[in-house]
């Protein structure tokens, strides 16, 4: 509900002790079409302080949101120069993906992982961005590929991923270090490349995805040559 549905707001869903979204937790999308919430956090039967030095358990997104507020405070302590946009990105990037794969209107990017988020910013971070386009490798880039998955496949950040936008672009934060990055989408051959991310810098890594049917054609052509058939 509002004000979490406003584009400027950072909406928080509530999960239970086994990472299931609570029935009372509002779902997206917002009336303007944005996926909501942005992230989720524990919000069912949370132990909280009460007047007169007592304690009790309560449920609600009002119990989940303080977890995110505390996470933001820890991120600022770990890296005082971190910006609001970077905080948003770090919380979303390091969240544990739940529900449908990727961002969804139940969990957002997933349940926040405060340990991973703080570790992320403490070691320094940079931005990896680029564009995924379609075309045979021999003919160069053509149309942008939307909905492609960009995923880190090297340790220690294996599994971190995001989807390309409608124009084929992507951008996300990564801790400083060396990575193997993979780009994939149904109907295309998977592409892979290596990249080094430096602290407080941006690295551009573009991918060219070859339609799968072209790879099949190439394989058939090679098989024909290997069989000794003369090709005019």
TrEMBL record:
Transmembrane segments: none annotated. Residues 1-110 form the Peptidase S8/S53 domain. Keywords: Hydrolase, Protease, Serine protease. One of its GO terms (biological process) is proteolysis. GO terms for molecular function: serine-type endopeptidase activity. PANTHER family: CEREVISIN-RELATED, PEPTIDASE S8. Belongs to the peptidase S8 family. This is Peptidase S8/S53 domain-containing protein. It comes from marine metagenome.
């Amino acid at each position: 509900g509002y004000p979490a549905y406003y584009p400027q707001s950072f909406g928080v869903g509530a999960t239970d002790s086994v990472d299931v979204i609570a029935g009372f937790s509002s779902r997206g999308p917002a009336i303007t079409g944005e996926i909501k919430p942005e992230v989720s956090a524990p919000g069912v039967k949370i132990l909280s302080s009460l007047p007169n030095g007592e304690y009790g358990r309560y449920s609600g997104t009002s119990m989940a949101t303080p977890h995110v507020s505390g996470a933001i405070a820890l991120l600022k302590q770990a890296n005082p120069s971190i910006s609001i946009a970077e905080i948003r990105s770090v919380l979303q990037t390091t969240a544990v993906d739940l529900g449908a794969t990727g961002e969804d209107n139940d969990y957002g990017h997933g349940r926040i992982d405060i340990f991973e988020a703080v570790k992320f910013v403490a070691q320094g971070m940079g931005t990896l961005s680029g564009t995924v386009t379609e075309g045979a490798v021999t003919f160069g880039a053509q149309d942008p590929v939307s909905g492609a998955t960009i995923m880190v496949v090297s340790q220690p950040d294996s599994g971190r991923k995001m989807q390309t936008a409608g124009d084929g672009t992507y951008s996300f934060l990564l801790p400083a270090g060396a990575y193997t990055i993979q780009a994939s989408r149904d109907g295309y051959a998977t592409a892979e490349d290596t990249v080094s991310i430096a602290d407080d810098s941006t690295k551009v890594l573009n991918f060219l995805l070859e339609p799968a049917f072209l790879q099949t054609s190439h394989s058939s052509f090679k098989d024909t040559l290997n069989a000794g058939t003369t090709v005019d």
